[in-house]
Amino acid sequence: MAEILPIKAWRYHDNLGRKIEELTSPLFDVVSQKQREALYSNPINSIHLSVPLGPDPVQNASRTLENWKDKEILKQDDLPGIYVYYQYFKFPGQEEESCRKGFIAQIRAYDWDEKVVLRHENTIAKAVNDRIDLLRATQIQSSPTHGLYEDPLHELEPYMDEAIEDPIYDLEDYQGVREVLAVIHDANIISKFLKVLESKHVILADGHHRYEGAIAFRKEMTGKNPDHTGQEGYNYHMMYFTNALSKNLRILPTHRLFLNIDLAEGEILQKLEPWFIIKKLNDVEEISELILQRKWAFGLIFSENAYKIRLIPEKIHEMQLSIPEVVKEVDMMVLHYFFIDKVLGVPLDKQRFSDKIEYERNLRRCLGKVEKGIASFAVITKDVAMTQVLDVCKSGFTMPQKSTYFYPKTLSGLIFASVAEEDFAFPYQAFKG
């Protein structure tokens, strides 16, 4: 099923390795404005390639890339490799450190209808277009998307554990997460990675916009190339792979902020009554714990008041969508259908284009935006179970956009993968056993 290849990676020059913490950056869709300002002040931070500035940002990124190559700020590794990537982290109240183990490789940019790479959520159209433009201009990927594969035997873990003992980088990132990167160049071991993945589906955990951009770019380049073979660099995409059956996968909730909604608090509560059980709360601090205990429960936060709302269980049968039960029962599907569509009047098929909805992972920031009047109100959500994500993917259907937040996020700038033919070309048959 999934064809993967090692990466002939571009990396910061070894002389800059000691400064790698100053050169990496958060992913384009999670970097805050304050973080951006600090990162842009460093002229060789990877953000200049992942979230470029200026009136013509994609051309700026292209010029920056050529400049960095000319000055050997970035150098390409001589050989392709599998890049082992471990992230060590703790949650509040967690004593034992968790480690998410994975590796970075190239994967063929399969169309969704090929059912090799499976998606679990919708995308936001503008973000996809931005990623296509940037890939077209630079032909380089500064961060991997995140894919999951299912391997109950954990066949690849011993090779990754051995490689990580000799890291290229070992740093602390903006999340406080320890990030460790190593590489495997041994062709026999690399062939084992390719062999394991060739029998697997890959579930896209994070990076739907970047992956859709890669599909669109592949189609565009295929149409322009009369000698297309399917082996060119533009057919591939950089991805970070983790075992979905690992115990250290974490999914955090992403809350919803609503802007410029022309409904008063009382009107919203009135419209909620046919669908939801409503309970006013005395303390907004209780909200996460209260909604955690019940299916289809959410927090509804206004500037002065807070409520717990829960779908009346029998109403689930009134969801008039031709989708499997496993998708209907996901909390985020319930929220987007019954609350955003039926109560607020933003149709389900228009929500991914709506400028009335923002997405915020941090609960404090979410509450603060409501208190300051930046947002009309917020809906607080809880995380989606990993089993639900797998079930939705295998159903062939998707959840609403920004339904999951896999933690920790990967970094931009640890390695760069070029799909330009002069950088990509290599006799990859040597790794296919």
Task: Report on the architecture of this protein.
31% of the residues lie in helices and 22% in strands. The protein has 433 residues and is of the alpha+beta class. It folds into two domains: 4-251 and 408-431, no CATH class; 254-382, Conserved hypothetical protein from pyrococcus furiosus pfu- 392566-001, domain 2, CATH 3.30.1760. The strands form five sheets. Strands 1, 4, 5, 6, 8, 9, 10, 11 and 12 form a nine-stranded mixed beta sheet that branches. It has a six-stranded antiparallel beta sheet with strand order 15-17-16-19-14-18. Helix 4 runs parallel beside helix 5 (125-138) and helix 5 crosses helix 8. The protein is globular. The model has no long low-confidence stretch (mean pLDDT 92).
CA-based gyration radius: 22 Å
DSSP helical segment count = 15
Average pLDDT taken over every residue: 92
> What fraction of residues sit in β-strands?
15-25%
How many structural domains can be distinguished in the coordinates?
2
Q: Using DSSP, what is the number of strands?
A: 21
Q: Terminal Cα separation, in Å?
A: 16 Å
Helix share bin: 25-40%
Provide the structure class: alpha+beta
**Uncertain stretches:** none
| Biggest pleated sheet | 9 strands, mixed
Indicate the overall shape: globular
Nutshell version of this structure?
This protein is an alpha+beta fold.
Describe the SSE topology.
Blueprint lengths: L3 E2 L4 E3 L7 H4 L9 H8 L6 H4 L6 H14 L3 E3 L5 E8 L8 E11 L8 E2 L6 H14 L1 E2 L3 E5 L7 H7 L5 E4 L5 E7 L2 H11 L4 E5 L1 H17 L11 E8 L6 E3 L2 E4 L6 H8 L3 E6 L5 H6 L4 E5 L4 E6 L13 H4 L2 H13 L13 E4 L2 H9 L5 E4 L5 H10 L9 E3 L9 E2 L2 H4 L9
Parallel strand pairs: 6-11, 8-12
Antiparallel strand pairs: 1-5, 2-3, 4-5, 4-10, 5-12, 7-21, 8-11, 9-10, 13-20, 14-18, 14-19, 15-17, 16-17, 16-19
Helix pairs in contact: 4-5, 5-8
